[in-house]
Amino acid sequence: MNTIGAVGKRLVVALVVITICVINSGCAVYHVYGVGGAEGREQGNQPGTEWNRKTLHNFGWGAIRQDLPAENCQLGDEQRLGIEEIKVETNLGYALISVITLGIWIPIDMGWRCAKPPVSSGTL
Amino acid sequence: MIRRNGPREWQNIHVTEKTNIKDLIDIDNSVSTGPQPKGFALLINAAEEIDTLVQEASRNGTRIRALGSSWALTDIAITDGWLINTKLLNACFDISDRYFETSYSDEKRPYLIVAQCGISVGELNIHLEVTATAGFRRALKTAGIGAGQTIAGAISGNTHGSAINFGAMPDFVVGLQLVTGGGKSLWIERASEPVLNDEFTLKLHAQRIRDDDVFNAAVVSFGAFGVITAVAIETDSVYHLRFPPVNDIKHDALKDKLNSFKYDEPAGLHHYEFVFDPYSKADIAMEAVATKVTYEPGHDTPKPRWIIRNEHGFALGDKMPRWIIAFPLLSARQKTAIQFKQYRRIAILGGVQGTPGQLFTATITYLEGYTESAIAVSISDAARMIEISTDVIKAMKLPAICQVRIVHPSRALFGFTYLGPKSAVFEFGLINDSSFEAFEKTLAGRLNSAGIPYTLHWSKNSGIDQQQLITMYGTTRVTTWRNARKQVFNSDTSLMRVFENDHLVRAGLA
Fold first, then answer.
1. CB neighbours (10 Å) of residue B329?
2. Residue A23, pLDDT above cutoff 60
3. Does the beta carbon of B156 lie under 8 angstroms from any beta carbon of chain A?
4. Contact yes or no for B3 and A76 at CB 8 A
5. Distance in angstroms (rounded) separating the CA atoms of residues B318 and A84
6. E strand segments, chain A
7. Where are the domains of chain B?
8. Nearest to residue B57, comparing CAs of B490, B494, B503?
9. In terms of CATH architecture, what is B2-238?
């Protein structure tokens, strides 16, 4: 009985984990962001824009890639801003596509936010 | 300059709110040709561009909301029309002597700055404490634990912090530049505390309103009065906050302390908070206290709080906190105990000393599906609030710790921390599902039955309707706020409609 109980408990845990993965549209998220700041203080991420997202595709085991030129990371005077943070997301559907096509087609979701311009200061 | 990004689905940082917007509009301080604007020209340029957008929206029947860092957990700052991203408007200026009213104290002048709406609290801290453009270091008088909000967002949503003898963030503001679509921006000050003179408003191309009621209404108006494009802020000389190690205190001792709180003990008391686990068998709460002490150069920056990744970069996934809280194999008591332990490990300040900008730094806080309910009561009712909220949490079997911060009453009409002699803000971390609203309604009902006045945090609640608004603030405050709103729009209903959203309509403020 104890063995059956233990197996049953593991089954429940496994089902919960699988349910979580299936329900979540973005099953795995990688997050890149700026850290640090003046005098060793932690400024964390300080984005200047909202999230932009795009699905990118890679074909033929890397033979053809889809780039993502971030056109919105510049000010009106064409001064370029850096990218402050990036999210890379995949999910069960994308993983299945990659497995079923043996890696010939690998889709992925990219998100990015631009950095802020330096603080402009002076005396009025 | 304006960049229109087009229609899209938009969501706030914690993904508690999603909406489809007709346009996401970035605005920055640059111009496409000629010399880049500086000083007054920069402030005028931003205001004029936004004013043009408002007029266009009014003609089209489109609604607008100014967007800061989208930290609000409620729908306070969202719209189905145009969201104007203000984060790129991050300039900050000192003020020459010539622009001050003669009545404004000479000693205070070097500490007054005019900050553009989109500068973040973190950027402002660096500007004041490190860059030190005045030639000496200054600091914000108060702030919340986070540093990612824009200054206008933090002020107009009444971010409160825990300055027991000062107030909330709106309370250090003494002037507002407001764009309403009327063709000219407004510069609003209290009549009782004039700060900047005629020459300043002339140079800003602004129309001045000096009126205590209008100022006290506009300073916490969550985007309903137009777009706040700049704020005049009174800062302090830089100071240190000294947090001794976190103190464990029995619930009974804590309640006794709250019932006869000594606001000047220990000397220089500046920050007071406590965190309790409603299920705690030991009845032990954590207490974080800080005194304001003289700035001492050479102190290392303390280890930042709210960093949830380990040294290898591993952290819980965005959606995991929700799933952990919903996990069926642990009881609410066990989950709450985990939260309490983790809060002690990564969140509460203890055994540190630093400037506000070194201590209050949280920015990475993506916890999807997680939300908070924050309710303020008078400190006189705080002990009873501990008991009532504990009862409700246990009865509903909710896994939730509670963080409480004590704040001096705000002068803002809709400052949710207006209750005296001090406001005690109770914050409950919850899953963003139907239990969130049920909890808040049950707790509000119990407070009403016990005759305990309360207010809900504008950015952390499950919805405020007209009746609840009047219960919280009274008819006089609501009427004064509505009249002030009419005054800044010169009763132009088409412009007022531009700044309505579902939140405003639901609260009966449209």
1. 9
2. no
3. no
4. yes
5. 18
6. 28-33, 52-59, 64-65, 83-90, 105-114, 121-123
7. 2-238, 239-466
8. B494
9. 2-Layer Sandwich (3.30)
User: For B475, how many CA atoms within 13 A lie in the half-sphere containing its CB?
Assistant: 0
The DSSP H or E segment spanning A4 is helix A2-23
CATH class as words, domain B239-466: alpha beta
Where b means 16+ CB within 10 Å and e means fewer, B216-233 reads: bbbbbbbbbbbbbbbbbb
Quote ipTM for the complex.
Answer: 0.91
Give the global pTM. 0.93
For B255, the token pair is 């309640």
What average pLDDT values come out for chain B (510 residues) when binned by 10 residues?
Answer: 94 90 96 90 97 97 95 90 97 97 97 97 95 92 92 94 94 98 97 98 98 98 97 97 96 96 94 96 95 90 83 83 79 93 92 93 75 96 97 95 96 96 95 90 96 96 93 97 97 96 94
Which of B49, B364, B367, B368 is best to mutate for the A interface (most A CBs within 10 A)? B364
Task: Give the B window 9-68 contacts with A, CB below 8 Å.
Answer: 10, 24, 26, 28-32, 36, 38-40, 42, 67
Q: Is the dihedral of CA B319, B325, B326, B330 positive or negative?
A: positive
CA–CA min distance A98, chain B (Å): 22
Name the residue facing A72 among B5, B131, B366 (closest C-beta): B5
What is the reported pLDDT for A14? 65
Asked if B96 reaches chain A (Cβ–Cβ under 8 Å), the answer is yes
At residue A1, the pLDDT reads: 47
Reported as half-sphere exposure (CB side, CA atoms, 13 A), residue B198 has a value of 0
Burial of residue B18, with CB atoms counted within 10 A of its CB: 0-12 exposed, 13-18 middle, 19 or more buried? exposed
Query: What is the pLDDT at residue A20?
Result: 56
- Rounded to an integer, what distance in angstroms lies between the CA atom of residue B159 and that of residue B141? 13
Q: Quick check: B301 and A40 CB within 8 A?
A: yes
- The DSSP secondary structure of B265-307, one letter per residue, reads SSTTEEEEEEEE-TT-SS-EEEEEEEEEEE--TTPPPPPPSS-
CA B243 to CA B241: how far, in whole Å? 6
